[in-house]
Design brief:
Length: 466
Amino acid sequence: MRKREPIGKILIERFLINETIVINALSRQKQDNLRICSQILKMGALSEEVLARALSYQYGLPAVVLGKSQILLSNLALVPYNIAKQNQILPVSMSGEKLIIAMRDPENTQIISELEFVSGKKVLPHIALEFMLSISIDEAYRLYKISRDGYFKGKDVPPNAIKEEHIEISIAELNLDSESSMSDKFEVVSIQEDIENITRGKDIASAFEKRSKPLICIVDDEPEIRTLLRKIVISEGFDSVEYARGDEAFRAIPKVLPDLIILDAMLPGMHGFDICKSVKSDPKLKSIPVLMVSAVYTGWRFMEDIKKTHGADDYIEKPFRIDMLVNKIKALLRNASPVQGRTTEELTLDVKNLYNSGARLFKEGDIEGAMYQFKKGIEKDSFYYRLHYGLGLCYGAKREDYMAISEFEKTIELKPDFLPALKSLAILYQQKGFRNKAVETWERAMNVAPDEETKAKIKEYLIKLL
């Protein structure tokens, strides 16, 4: 994590505020128990929007201007009032698999993890002024008690504003050149270049048929836990394969087709819940039982939500009793449907036709037609990365940016060195105000660049951003 500049220094140097005002605001902090930007807002020295931009610059994240926001009250169902007030968070928007949360402390990973668990969505934290956030939480939840079908409107939203969700997000200005366009280029790559990925069905189906005993996939980042689980599995007469990182397991599961997955929730690289949802949404993998294993959840988490929201077949808390774990494994294997392998011919025909058709339609400007083809392809094989990339480009062309971000993120989860997706994702992160994420993604792109010219070009982007 990069060291943040003090907000007072940012305000003085970049927003041309008088140093005396900053000193005055600092002196009032103990009296009002408010952070400096909220103090300056109360003093009337700067507007909420300008202060939000300063916070956006400091954190490298987008900032919500709550005074100009109109928020669907139905979003509040995701977070109880006491949790929102205690943690100073407010759900402001949902877009596909993304949940935008206005937060006083956008680096609070614990509350972000809890929100992702409860909602089943990827949380995009946005910074907001503490003073405005506290007022908005009280008013929004007051209205929510009256009617869940209404809207919260910030104090600067016109009374006759159109009744549809509208989030005004203030971000630090970023200069992007014309090459930032999401839809200016789409190269139809020969399906033969990815033959290793899309012809996995024949070999795997054959290996699956030759198995003499069930194969258990163990995914946990703690070596001691993996060793314990391996010993348990082997002692019961099963084979095992192990992964310490979520992203490694995610890419390996379609290739090894295990009979059961024992999956930790908190993993480096990719969250266990996301792996579970991906497995359960893939027609080839959804019959594989998933047993989630994690530390005891606290607060407002509930065990059944893991099954309902994320599709897990069962759950066991750490620390667990060995006999209970063994019973759950045997029960899941006993009740599981056979894993259906697909032949090379079936995979190649389905993926080739749908991907190439989508690519052709995209080049012709038929975005809706291309989206349909890519989505149909994903229904048949959700682990083929180019289908997600194509769908991301379609969303980008329609300016459905958060949907595009989701698809590009899925693309690089499946293919971490796929440069076109890394570049597209970095650009979108920039445009939406996620400066730190943009920097990290450009750095990843530079590391996989195929030549010095491309590396130099990416380096120019990084220099602009930093």
